Amino acid sequence: SKWKESLLERTISRQHVNLMKHVYGGKSTQTSTTSRDEGDDDEESDDDHFFRPKGEGNKNESKAVDGANASSEDYSKFTNFFNDNNVESIRDRFVTGDWSKAALR
Amino acid sequence: MLKTKYKRLKGSQILRQRLLLATLSHTPVLIEDIRTDETWPGLRPHEVSFLRLMEKICDDSFIEINETGTKLKYKPGIVMGGRHLVHDCGTSRAIGYFLEPLIVLALFGRKPLSINLKGITNDSKDPSVDTFKSTTLPMLKHFGVDLKDVVLKIESRGVPPHGGGEVTLTLPTVKSLSAISWTEEGMVKSIRGVSFSTRVSSQFEHAMITSARGVFNRLLPDVHIFTDHRKGPQAGNSPGFGISLVAETTKGCFISADTTVSYGHAGESTEFEEEKKELPPPEDIGEQMAYALLGEINQGGVVDSTHQGLLFLLCALCPADVSKVRVGKLTPYGIETLRNIEDFLKVMFNIEADPSNGTVVLKCVGSGMINLSRKHS
Questions:
Q1: In terms of residue numbers, what domain contains B356?
Q2: Which among B91, B298, B321, B334 is least buried, having the fewest CB atoms inside 10 angstroms?
Q3: Does residue B265 sit at the A interface (CB-CB below 8 Å)?
């Protein structure tokens, strides 16, 4: 419904605010209520001397190829699969799509 | 005589990148606690092999590893480069693992590098050599590297577990990179790719291409995927097949996705035993990779997720000038790279999310890296 849309938007924008902190680790430990931790469970504990930002679980969620990030091994390869069966949803990223929409990006 | 002051680090994370940054910033490092709690402690064969490679292309570097391999002392020397070098990368990781740091290191060498690397050319864990050709090396152009001196030739292919592949890499040196403002990703205008097979029927290649095309043809007519069938000594020691896809945009960005299917790495745990009996059908692999490429295109950004780390690294190695790039969602490896860059080069990125399309814009002032050892001819 309509009231949810603005909520979702706000949630997303709030998550992005702390990107600097996600990467470099902030001094103030402001816990954001919007950050989700569910992806953190499958992390191995062998890299625990590194600061683990709270929101990072969201980024790990995407289905990586067999264990690309499951361990602390040194992998740069990262695959995001396109889960939506409707390929039309990304048509505007192609030259066959709407150029005026793409220009807004 | 001054006593060398070592930068103390712990753990085995992103070892190759730490060594790369240590060399470029002339920081001696002492890494402790390398897999101390594991059944097989210490450095892995590919990490030792990477150290040997560093030794080969650098002069006056000093490497000391303790008996169990859990402690590593590294004092960087001068990157020399040189012609007709040969290095055996072993079979524990693919050549891509070695190429990633090597292409950055070689740019800051004294002499241009040409090296012959032996090992696994394609596997599922590291970017394949095809991706290096199609995506990674063209990236250097944006930073002012002349692409006509950059050559990666695939002499023969090798897949896990036994490898047997061989590539020749030629790279020029630069005085310094040039800072970039690279935020427009453009629209995808063409899709190219290579499918290959080693020691199996060439039908595997065609099956992968057909299923991948089936996905793309709904979106774009300009799709060409080439085949590279290898046999005899050019096919390495193990059977396998794979596909590497790359999308080119109107703004000259390359977005890649690749994978390889084979009977797994030697000495891998028994959970893979089941898979050893049968490989997935090539049709599925083709389609899967097509969707992986669409996923990367959907992310936005001027490079794909795999190349984020390299992009940040190159930005940080620019002269003291502002660089600005746009990427998709930050990957764990990208984040680790940013932290390492801050640690060694003292370059901190300004990271801002763009909520309108889910991309991230990063800005930084380069560390002012200048290649002092470069030989003038």
A1: 303-365
A2: B321
A3: no
